[in-house]
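Quick start: read one record
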Amino acid sequence: MITVVGGGFAGVEAAWAAANRGERVRLYEMRPVRETGAHKTDYLAELVCSNSFKSKLPTSPAGQLKVEMVALGSIIIPTGEENSVPGGEALCVDRDVFAAAVTTKIENHPLIDVVREEFTPEMAQAVLDANEILIIATGPLTSKPLGEWLAGLTGRKHLYFYDAVSPTVDASTLDMSVVFAQSRYDKGGDDYLNCPFEKDSYLAFVHELVNAERALPHGVAAEDETLEKIKYFAGCTPIEAIAEGGPRSLAFGNFKPVGLTDPRTGRRPYAALQLRPENAGKTLYSLVACQNRLKWGEQKRIFRMVPGLENAEFVRFGVIHRNTYIDSPQVLSPNLEMREYPNLFIAGQITGVEGYVESAAMGIFAGISAVRKLHGLPEAIPPRACAYGSLVSHLQDATPRDFAPMNINWGLFPDPETPIRDKQVKREWKLKQAQDGFATWHESLGPV
C-alpha cells in the first residue's frame, strides 16, 4: 500500500503512476471536509489560477516536459488534451470539465481508494511507523498542522511558508557590453553581475516602478496573517514599496553602488542593480532584492528599462504570496525521498518546482520512485539533459542563494561544453540532448 496525501495535480499523478504499476494506493483529499480558501469545487486536480498548461510545442521546454510525462503514463496531459479549449500554442482546458474527468478516472481506478478526510500528522507518523510508503503532495496550501509537522522534520529553516522571490533571467539574453562582473570592493570574486544606472535612467526606472500596476495578493488563506504582516515580518518588502519612500531610496538601499566601478566609465555608477547566479552553471541569474507585487507584464516592461536587461528573457517573475515548499537541495534526495526519513517522498510544487505541469511531473516521478523503493529496486534518476533531469537538478542544486520554486525553462537545461553563440542553434542542441537522454532513461525503466 502506498499512501498519497493531496488530490491536486501532483497527488493524482503520483497515485495514477503507482496504481498503473500494480500498487494499491490510498489517496487522501481533505476537501470538502475542510476547504482551502482557494478551491471552489470538490474535484480532484482543480485549477485555482490560469487554465493554461503553457506551450504544447514539442520544441519548447514545457512541450518537451509534456512529451516525457506522456511517455511515463501521465493522467493530466492526456486528460487536458481531451478537454482542451482554444489557446493558441498553449494547452488550455475547460477547467471544470477537465477536473471532473480527472476525478472520474481516479475514482474508477480499481487500485486507488479516494479518502475524503484531512490527513493529520498523527496519521502520517502512523504510516511511517508501519514502514509503509508515504507521498506528501499537498501543494502550496498545505494545511497548517501538516505544514508544522513537515517543519519539525526538516527544521523550520528548511521549510518556507511564503514566497518572496525576485525575477530570474536567462543569462544568454543579457547585454554583456553593459553588464559587468564585480562584487562590491572586489570581495567575494566576480559571481555578481551589475547593471549600472546613470542618474536619468535610474530616475526614469523609479518613476515607472512607483506608478506600475500591482497584482492582487493570491494564495493567502483566511487562517493566515495578512500580507502586510507577512512581508514586514519576513523582511521581504516589495521593491516598489521601498521606492515609494523617495526617489533615492533604492540608490541608498537595494541598488547601492558603493564599491563598484563601471569599466565603461572608470567611475562608480549612480546606482546598480545586481544579479546573482541561480544555478551552478550560471545560466540563470536572479535580480537581487527585487521581490515585488507587480503584474507580470509590468515587471517585464519596467525591468527591461534596467541597463543591460533591455532584451532579457524572464524565466520567473517576482512574487510575494503564500507558498509552502521545502528547501529541497538540503533535505531531499534525487528520487524525491527525504534524506533523513526513509519511505517519505515529497511531490509537486512543495518540492520547489513551479506550475501545473511541473508539479504534475514531479508527482509522476514520486510515484515511480515509491514503487521502486517498495520493490527494492535501485533509484532511477533521470539524466541531466532531459526535462525531468533539469527539474531534478534544480531541486538538488545547492548553489548559495535563496532557494525558490522554478518553472521548466531553457536555462535549466545544461549548456554544451563548447559554447554555441547562436541562441536558436543552442536550444536545438539542448532539445536533441533532452530527447536522446530521456529515451535512454525511459527504456531503462521498463513498461508502465
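The first strand starts at residue 2 and ends at 5.
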